[in-house]
Here is the input.
Amino acid sequence: MVKIAVLGYGTVGSGVVEVLKTNQKLISANAGDEIEVKHVLDLRDFPDDPIQEKIVHDYSVILNDPEIQIVVEVMGGVNPAYSFVKQALLSGKSVATSNKELVAKHGAELISIAKQQQINFFFEASVGGGIPIIRPLQCCLTADEIDEISGILNGTTNYVLSEMTFQGSDFEEVLREAQELGYAERNPQADVEGFDAGRKIAILTSLVSGRQVDFEDVYTEGITKISSADMKYAKKLNCIIKLLARSRRKDGQTYVMVAPFLIGPKHPLYSVNGVLNAVYVHGNMLGDTMFFGSGAGKLPTASAVVSDVVEAARHLHDHVEVKWSQEKMPLGKIADYVSRFFVRVKEEDQEAACALFGSEKIVDAGIAGEVGLITRAMTEEQFAHLAESVSLLSRIRID
Amino acid sequence: MVKIAVLGYGTVGSGVVEVLKTNQKLISANAGDEIEVKHVLDLRDFPDDPIQEKIVHDYSVILNDPEIQIVVEVMGGVNPAYSFVKQALLSGKSVATSNKELVAKHGAELISIAKQQQINFFFEASVGGGIPIIRPLQCCLTADEIDEISGILNGTTNYVLSEMTFQGSDFEEVLREAQELGYAERNPQADVEGFDAGRKIAILTSLVSGRQVDFEDVYTEGITKISSADMKYAKKLNCIIKLLARSRRKDGQTYVMVAPFLIGPKHPLYSVNGVLNAVYVHGNMLGDTMFFGSGAGKLPTASAVVSDVVEAARHLHDHVEVKWSQEKMPLGKIADYVSRFFVRVKEEDQEAACALFGSEKIVDAGIAGEVGLITRAMTEEQFAHLAESVSLLSRIRID
Here is the structure.
């Protein structure tokens, strides 16, 4: 019998309890031992829920209980999660977490503590919810130089962009709907500004490079400036606009960014719509591979957390190596990153803009008084410099 | 230093040597030790290849070399691969193989020997080439009752069907082209009759159920009867024809089959074209997930084999549990499996066929003298019985 404690009985926490209950037999068989939830930490009480008898309000009950071998942290946020997780690891309890803020900020340190203690710190659910991506990167794609990871890693923004694409609605309108449907938080900034995706691509890049990528260093651009006019041009170009979280190696540099991109129908991420997530990985030997599924949601996320619990139960006293040191990974300067851009300009600026950006293609989406152009490939720095000479209505990178 | 031997210097074997050489530093870092190819077994000599100095013609050199800790078997076919692999395991050497015939037939036994010896028998490359699917099933999707696996698991047939779809060509013509391009074998029977996909879905079902599924028990139908006329109807229905290898749990039974299916644009496998492979998995908690990539090819397959070598090097003296016993898994009878069918009948049989199959929808693809119908949902047995009363030009299941 392996006894575990769950920190936080919110959406994911109650999902973890539900997954463990629903698939109890199978999970025990996979883990090689029965898994039992002994304590659930939450500030609240749940008098009408059988969980109530396991609810504790004081973390020290869990920390000081020698029977607890695995702690599931699904509270979210850096504090007090960081302190709780660190104490758990230091007292010899393995940890499984879905908390991307925690992993992005303190992952390397927590892994090193787990290693010292010969236990484990697992975080499959922190990126891509139910999509298996963390463990496949660590134990499947190990023969390859990974030269690109491009992901649709945020369900909220993908839902919003999909609705804007297919319903022709405006950003604010779709966001409001998404909030009503529970697909977007009441405070949606972390999603729509790309910070959530930024943390996730920082985690994936850290795992692939073996070194710390701080998400504050990830160039991040959200979707708040994307308009229904942009969508009309995208449609005209037979493209779709996606918020991509991307890590790409080029000329010995790793460029990490989150930004909206125009992508065409042959792009592997083109048909990933709604709240779905997908991660495209390119290896120098493997070529293209893609992982696809539910990026969020109570049960898919809980399923990933429980698969970490199974793995932790299989390796109660041996550390599964995770290459992610605290040494900082130097990133390529985004100013040097080369893209083509789609830009919209007023009709009277068309000629000047074409000359400036070396555009050969004019796109007319039927919006009076303006046109779209596609620039030649240039660095971000070159583009920013040229863009000073003409007034742009919008600009989106092209992949 | 971990010394390995490669059995077979064909396409995959030379790929393994190439992957190990190209990514040597990274692979050693991932494995935690340097990996060196010491011997390569092949009947041939390769005088112009630096590999020549490692070539041995006699397997006993490898078997009796105590320095060899991992054997890579990439010869294909059951014999002598089975005997070589079994001897390797019995003498304490871990094995990584890409050989689906071997794994489908003897996987359970070879895993049990590896377990006794506290070493490993790994076979990631045997299904889906470079797509990570075996290990994710074993160490990621462990919290779920897997109720469906549907895969496009054979690149040759997917290429042929894609060309038939998009070029409107006939089966024989596309197959000939595919043979010229090296996408199809000179003897294509194992591919086009669905046997290759059948072995792969048998392996996946064995892993998910933990029991032996014999591929001879998998209901298998190939693509040789699919015509350009069928493709015209598929297009009219806004569908595409795919050879699916499928394992589905329903009412406590597991039905395993390989057959062409008509699938619509919302189907997760709809846009998997050409030589690509994909595996769709549905878990009772996780919902939909999909793995996608190169199902074959020298370097993608070799990359998967080398990732197994890395994993074997990480676990030289401990067995990574694989749930796959030799106990036979009882399968649901295909006669009881319920589908809707698309059928083509001569124009004069239209009325009788509509009444017989309860069809409400008539499809006219502009082919003189015939029409297409979609039947109501019925078991294979019911369909076979009804089909005796009318002459069918073709029939394809609908997913």
Observations:
- Chain B touches chain A through 54 residues (CB under 8 Å).
- Chain B has a mean pLDDT of 96.
